[in-house]
Amino acid sequence: MKNLKNNIILIIIICCEIIALPFSIRNRGWTLFAYYTQISNILTSVSVIALLIANITNRPAKWITGLRYGSACMLLLTMIITLAVIAPSGQVSLGQLLYSPLDNGLYHHLICPILSIASYIMCEDHVHHKSAILIPLCGTLLYGTVMILLNALRLFVGPYPFLQVLDQSVFASIAWISGILLTTFLLSALIFWVSMKMEK
Question: In the chain, where are the structural domains located?
Answer without folding.
Answer: 2-198
